[in-house]
Structure formats: structure tokens, C-alpha cells
Design goal:
alpha/beta, 21% strand, 10 strands, 201 residues
Amino acid sequence: MLIKIYAKNPDERAVARVVNILGSDGLIIYPTDGVYAFGCSMRSRKALERLKAIKKKAESGFSIMCADLSHISDYAKIDTPQFKLLRRNLPGPFTFVLNASSKVPDKVLSRRKSIGVRIADNPITQAIIEAYGQPIITSSVKSDDDITEYVTDPELIEEKYGTLVDAVVDGGYGGLVPTTVVDLTDDQPEVIREGAAELRF
């Protein structure tokens, strides 16, 4: 099922349909400021298991997509220098790895103590997360072949994954460059994957 949402003025009814799917153990694919991504509720074991099966990851390093810095501070431990770094770079195509707080469900962490956090610079993503009221688990849609359209064109994404997910949010063509990943679990920030943006210190 394709749900069209325009970035300029996200339709509240369309956003509500997506939120209802997330709240009903559903699994979606949605646009971000980088690549299209899978998304599901942190509270849904059923949806998480479906996502793990698709990604073929048993102990996966999933991240969470947040609406704002207060969301991040609820689910990750942040000191003052880290907060300033996040504020300088978010929203944007970054994944920051932080020590997780006790609010992150164990089924998400899978014995890890850290969690990747994101705030996407995308109005559709923002509208969905704000309407849902809590972060969602997120994981990039990646191509297992050389046909890039199957990760950038929402209609072709729906053709490929439509039987595996409950909805594909059509936000127009997506990108191919993943987020820049920055590890903040030690004293000094460490860029562990170069991606769509350069870190501003």
C-alpha cells in the first residue's frame, strides 16, 4: 500500500494513517533526509521481529528516529558537550551513537548498551514522529543488487517490499547516500562512517 505525503504540506489524514499502522504492530517504509528507511514502533515485538527477518539481523544495531533533542535525551544519556554537538548538527543526515537510557526496551538493544539516534531534516519524517509522539525504530532500505531505483523510487520500493510491509510512504524520490555515523560513547567523538554530511564541531 502506497500512502502519498507531500513534503511541502504533509496531509494530516495521511500522516494519521501511517501513525495508526505504527500503533497497530505495523511496519512501514518512509522517506528520510538520506535514504528510504524501514520504521516500526519500539514497543512492538511483532513488528521488530518482522524487521529483523527482512534485514536478516538477529542482534541488529537498529537506530531510533526522534522528533527533537528532548526525545533523544529521554532515550539516551547525554552530557553537556554531547548536547551541544547534537544541537549543532541536528536535524540532519547523521546517526549519533550514544549510551542508551533505561527507557529503551531490551528487545531493541539486544544486549547492547548503546543506541543510534537520528533527527531527520525531512518534513514528512518530522510530521510522522511528532504525530506518533515517540521515536520509532529505523533501518535503511538497502539494495541487494545494482538497481538503485528499488531503493529510491517509492513505487518500485512498494513493488519489491509491498508484501513484507504494511505501507510505503511515498515522499518522492529518495537519496542514495546514507547518514554520517558518529560514535559518542567515548570521551571524543569518532566518525565511524562518512556519509551525507560533514560533522560540525
